[in-house]
Amino acid sequence: MKFSSSLLVAASVATLATAAGSTSKPKNYIFFLPDGYGPASETFARDFANYKSNNTNMLPVDELAIGYVRTFATDTLVTDSAAAATAYACGKKTYNGAIGVDDNYKPLGTILEAAKLDGFMTGLVVTSRITHASPAGFATHTYFRDLESDIADQLVGYTHPLGRVVDVMMGGGRCFFLPQSDEESCREDDVDLWSIAHDKYNWTMTTEREKFDELDNGLAEDIPLPFAFIPNLDHMMYEVDRESSLEPSLTEMAITTLNLFDRLTKDSDKGFFLFIEASRIDHAGHAHDPIGHVHDILEYNRAMQAIVQWINDGHSDTALLSGADHECGGLTMGVPDYAWYPEVLDVARNTAGIYAQQFETFNETANATETDKMKYLKEQIFEAYGIKNATKEEIEGYFTADSAEIYLGEVLSARAGINWSTLGHTAVDITLFGHGINTHNMIGSWENGEVGQFMANQLGLNVANVTKILQANESFVQAIGPDAEGKKLIKRYRLQHDHEHLHEGAFHKH
Amino acid sequence: MKFSSSLLVAASVATLATAAGSTSKPKNYIFFLPDGYGPASETFARDFANYKSNNTNMLPVDELAIGYVRTFATDTLVTDSAAAATAYACGKKTYNGAIGVDDNYKPLGTILEAAKLDGFMTGLVVTSRITHASPAGFATHTYFRDLESDIADQLVGYTHPLGRVVDVMMGGGRCFFLPQSDEESCREDDVDLWSIAHDKYNWTMTTEREKFDELDNGLAEDIPLPFAFIPNLDHMMYEVDRESSLEPSLTEMAITTLNLFDRLTKDSDKGFFLFIEASRIDHAGHAHDPIGHVHDILEYNRAMQAIVQWINDGHSDTALLSGADHECGGLTMGVPDYAWYPEVLDVARNTAGIYAQQFETFNETANATETDKMKYLKEQIFEAYGIKNATKEEIEGYFTADSAEIYLGEVLSARAGINWSTLGHTAVDITLFGHGINTHNMIGSWENGEVGQFMANQLGLNVANVTKILQANESFVQAIGPDAEGKKLIKRYRLQHDHEHLHEGAFHKH
Fold first, then answer.
1. Residue pairs spanning A and B at CB distance below 8 A
2. Is there a single domain that holds both residue A372 and residue A460?
3. A9, A24, B209, B270: which has the fewest Cβ within 10 Å?
4. CB atoms A427 and B9 under 8 Å
5. CB A427 within 8 A of CB A80
6. Do residues A156 and A134 both lie within one domain?
7. A147-191: per-residue pLDDT in tens?
8. Which of A24, A41, A81, A244 is catalytic?
9. B431 and A2 in contact by Cβ < 8 A?
10. ipTM
């Protein structure tokens, strides 16, 4: 089956693009990545929000939809976050696991690096570890996403061949900045990156919400740049679990950074490039936890709405594009046939992981009897999470489940009429949202790499030139490529994702 | 959680709509409904087509994407085809099962009826039974979709209070036109609708492909209108199973009808409204058969491409919108984690139903031994359908499955990395495609009813007036509403779709 490859762009769209075709371009660009946010996630969260408010409103992002994105990686039809981030950042597809490198492990310049070299301000604001695949793909280079110590080293400028390319970073992942002698460290070396960043690269490294809050008050000249706000060792908390005295919301981090950049660049002809990620929509999808999923999606929507408001409110030189890297969890609503009850999700006040932890704590109390424990599990865990009148079978399943967290999520999902088909991602196209100058040019269907190319072009950046600089640096190319051990790492990662044996039959009717 | 309900339409889109805002409107409208075509179905078919042609092309419809549609019905968040067709046709949401009636069983005027009353030509071209929910929702009225005899009666004009409102219909479902004395009839009365249509309403009623082909040759004055081409008792064949000597493709039916309408209306100031449906994308989803699903999707794409070509080729006064009624089957690709192998689908030359039938026939041959049968099943059925080296377990499962057809589909799907989560529909928004005059005004996110309102407005039609006429007809209102038995019918249908008991716990870990 072969379709003609003629470019039958809808006449309407083509006409519009020409009619409104403007030569003016944005000074600033925001790329906002809702990780693991597939089309079903949007309907899912909208139906929940509308249940809560008893209406049939749109979500804020519904009003910004302009197209969709084709996300496959070079080695599989189902991408991971690393390959997708690299495609968005570098304008070129690569293999799953790759951070800012191509299929041959050669570094690719990113839009953020090109922006920095051209005098823009740059930022990474995320709710995962700041060293996680998505932010990493915008500012660092390594053959494998799990090398988060190396990624942290590059993020602060320590081992980045272009020097420091990031001005502001916010997110979790402090454990990758601590030497292994520190019991909270995730590193396997003695590098005290937190101190190096501060001492050698002038970073303000802080874990304190107060320091973050001060950003909103300081005058431009008072702002201690570069600025890293990394309150958590691991990821930031899910929105529904967040303690606001310790962590700002993603919306707060995004708007604070926008205001900061605005103050710092308003007298310059160069603006900023800001990468924002609602990282944990994805994590809740992997965990099959509808509670974490829905509340992080709603926070993504609040952040998008706040940014649109910010752009409309005197910042029309800023453009916003937003698209996920991939769907996560294989979410569908209507399982069994035609069932979908968002009200079931309106009981829980925390993610499944918190409830599972809470039970673990109770379970370890010395004087609790088995009866106490079962009662506690039923009433304080299942019931509190939204699983009304848990059956004996449902409760017993808790103790044999591989993961108590995932088990709780799946039981609640089944009650709500939600199904998760995989612990990984799925191949479905994701929706592209846009607001502001020239984003109408992105109406329609695009490869993820094309989205990155468009943004770089809009800022007048030469990403190819950054690639040239990076690839000319032989010792860097050497350092970020895999040795024999590294090739094994990648192979193992791919094998986890590889199921060619399916062809030979492994069907179990469920 | 409450979002501000401000209408934050993307500035770009709003600007464009104004910039290109034209007062000219289309003379003709085509609404093309790919039944059961969710976002994942599009990625699925594209990946398959690209596997076949070894490239990374877009599908034809990818190039026409302009937005998406929110599809919930008034009684559930997961719509059926009846409620969705009514929303598109009448501009108003209703309950699952409703055909052209509102929540109170009162008739709602449809865009097709309004077009007919205003002097337009009208057509229904589908691959399901012509009496099935989607075409029925555009031209008939009844409280329950399964009353297909009543729907047939209205389609030909026999019991329609507006008289005959359809000029051309093509599709399956002849059994509903035959009196119960005919062994091929699906009716429960003695009405010989086929003869009545011909004798009293001047329909050319034909089952012959030759008669269909003649439509392309005749002069306008020779065309024997109204014209019904209904070759099959039940649905038309799936595209991959189609015998072209008996049945034209959906593309052929669509283009032939367009040319016919074009010739008949070219000297009139009134054009036509044509409803086209790729009906069986949905049926294959219900059957979990990736083969029927992918080939009917590709045929939908060919038909869309041909229509766009037709519009571009001298028919710029015709506008096209296309959107599904809902997703079907809960399709996801990447199950287990990251597996998705479209090549597995490149073996079968028929749908699963045909292979299951084929085995049934062999199974009934008198002198075949058990060994013969198992060998035949493995080699001529499983292998031919694409299930290489079927395991003993896979083959044994065939005999205990509720449905051999669905079982085959599920085994093949598992080999390909595809999951189907439900035998019904799911809630995810569907994609809206458009081409031609003013369709850019539909960029963004819409309720299904808003799509119908837009089309009626574009043709300058007064659907509300048709509603008034219909509702003023008391005997008709009476006839199409439910009696006590009818209310039971609806209740039963809703119960099939109702799983409130989930709240009380029915989780089985799979």
1. 386
2. no
3. A24
4. no
5. no
6. yes
7. 999 999 999 999 999 999 999 999 999 999 999 999 999 999 999
8. A81
9. no
10. 0.93
